[in-house]
Amino acid sequence: MATGKRLSGRQRLGWTVLTLLVLGYALFPVASILATSFKTQAALGQRAFLPTNWTWDNYAMLFTGDARDLFLPALRNSIGITLIATFIAVVLATLCAYAIARLDFPGKKVILGSALAVSIFPVISVVTPLFNVWRGIGLYDTWPGLIIPYLSLTLPISIWTLSAFFRQIPWELEQAALVDGATQWQAFRRAIVPLAAPGVFTTAILAFFIAWNDFVYGISLTSTEAARPVPAALAFFTGASQFQEPTGAISAAAIVVTIPVVVLVLLFQRRIVSGLTQGAVKG
Amino acid sequence: MTTAAENPAPARRRRRAGRSARGRAEVRLGWLLAGPAFLIMLSVTAYPIAQAIFDSLFSFRLTAPGDREFVGVGNYLTIFTDPVFWQSLGVTVLVTVVTVAVELVLGFGLALVMHRALKALRGMLRTAILVPYGIITVVSAFAWYYMFDINSGFINVWFDWVPGIGADLDWFAQFPTAITVIMASEIWKTTPFIALLLLAGLAQVPDELLEAARVDGATWRQQMARVTIPNMKAAIMVAVLFRALDAFRIFDNVFIMTNGSAGTEVLSMLAYKTSISRLEIGMGSAISVVLFACVLLICWIAIRFFKVDLASGTDAKPTGGKK
Q1: Less packed terminus of chain B by CB within 10 Å, N or C?
Q2: What is the value of pTM for the model shown?
Q3: What is the pLDDT, as a whole number, of residue A179?
């Protein structure tokens, strides 16, 4: 591995090309819709990548214009509901995966099997019966009414991913620490937590994106700005007739809902980089 | 490698004394830790799943709730004799196979690049790669749709020198081009999922093993095939299985780009249109149950094929016996 060594000219060129390729792959479609969001109505027909005249009109429509009452509450709902659902899912999944990886008890396979069954069942067929129950018990169009189904989306993959992570952890380190005179808690804290944390953070990212991305629950279990999340609002937005051609406005809304993603990616990224690749396994 | 080798003391004790007091305490603790997650998952899905299976046995439309009638497997017979179902199943399988295959190769490449990049580049690369994954599928679908759109997209202008592409090519009017753009959006958005899981797997590969292989004169290819990939089998398994199951339920991209036209209707789309648009709850539930059965089949094949028992932990350290 190149770390710590000086790169030759060829390696430097190779890495530059690789980096540009990866960045291009990851960011080009985003750049494309970003450029579209700044186009005027007339510029859309020119079929160019960049707008000829840059305009904030599409964004103005979202924040001060017609779409304001639809868009801003949806953004608040999405952020709140998604963060709460992610936090609960990661805490519960960590406990569950620890038990599955470390303890011997009947029902492990039942839990993993159920998690899989839950995660693969088509949301569309779950949502119709849920719709009726939620209306019956008052959870329809509320934050908990979305947080609970989001847990069913995020828990299974969190449990599976964390179980895989936890099984790859060399738990002997804990025994070794105990032999060296550490208490049970110290052994867990010093030997295991540093190894487990990268997996937990990666899982948190995955869980967040799954909840943030949801569309079917969001559109089916809400009816007003009390709980409607962004993807569902975006769908309403596209159908709104006051925009003669919604391309620019949709693009602007798409960019706005991508900003929290980028911000959170940056926040989680630091923690992952510090932990994921330099686990204590190597030590 | 057995559980006993990973955690020798308790296993030996259990074998000697059966389920001792300590063993019972372990069972209690196990369910105490795993129970809450288990209960929540079941409570939100067990009832709706049962309801869907129950509903699938009835001829039941919300537009005519009084005409609810028990038809047994009648809905399923209708589905299996309908070419529309087989067409959408074919499209779904095509999308699943192509996207997962492309994503596994692409994702492994991305994971390797991120894993081996200099520290200064790593953060940037990972941040970039997380952007497509974090983006809402609906947003990704719009981004790709507008790129290829016949009225405002620039792809037709940029690539008009390619035979078959010209200013008047409507990508979403015929199946091959429409499904290509749909799969491109799907692949772009979800490859980072595979790449991240594989990267996590790569990080768990012990450096000493790679070092030893290198000292022994193994080529890069040999290191990959003999050390890296066997050591990250669990990560590959989880990544491929979850992506395949997810790809099989593709919905948002198709919904936004074609809404099922040009022969691109997938199974989820068919279920959605049947139950939500046409309010045929019975038939829609039956399609959903069939979809679920297909997905179970994929799961069964994957676990059989990889011979991985995810609950026992034997997959975690395939090279452990050599230590």
Answers
A1: C
A2: 0.80
A3: 85
Phi, psi of B155 (to 5 degrees): -60, -45
ipTM above 0.90, yes or no: no
Contacts of A149 in chain B (CB under 8 A): 44
Contact B49 A126 (CB under 8 A): yes
User: Is B47 in contact with B280 (CB distance < 8 Å)?
Assistant: no
| pLDDT computed for residue B322 by the predictor | 27
Question: CB-based contacts of A192: which residues, under 8 Å, 6+ apart?
Answer: A169, A171, A173, A174
Q: Do B42 and A161 touch (CB under 8 A)?
A: no
Q: Which regions of chain B carry the CATH code 1.10.3720.10?
A: 56-322
Q: How far is CA A103 from the centre of its chain?
A: 29
CB atoms within 10 A of CB B256: 23
The predicted pLDDT at position B101 comes to 94
Report residue A45 CA to chain centroid gap.
34
Backbone angles phi and psi of B165, in degrees to 5: -105, 130
For residues A47 and A32, what is the distance between their CA atoms, to the nearest angstrom?
Answer: 12
Indicate which CATH number applies to the domain containing A223.
1.10.3720.10
Interacting residues of B131 by C-beta distance below 8 A, sequence separation 6+: A26, A27, A30, A258, A261, A262, A265
Which residue is listed with tokens 């700005």? Answer: A225
Domain count, chain A: 1
Residues B269-283: pLDDT tens digits?
888 888 777 878 888
Taking CA atoms, what residue in B is nearest to A1? B116
Q: B110 and A30 in contact by Cβ < 8 A?
A: no
The average pLDDT across B42-69 equals 82
Label residue B237 by pLDDT band (50, 70, 90). Answer: confident
- Please give the residue range of the domain that contains residue A230: 73-239
- Other Cβ atoms within 10 Å of A16 Cβ, number: 11
- Whether A177 maps to a domain, the answer reads yes
CATH class of B56-322: mainly alpha
* Contacts across the A-B interface (CB distance below 8 Å): 315
Strand partners, B61: B64, B280
Please, which pLDDT band fits residue B98 given cuts at 50, 70 and 90? Answer: very high
> Within a 10 A sphere around the Cβ of B272, how many other Cβ atoms?
26
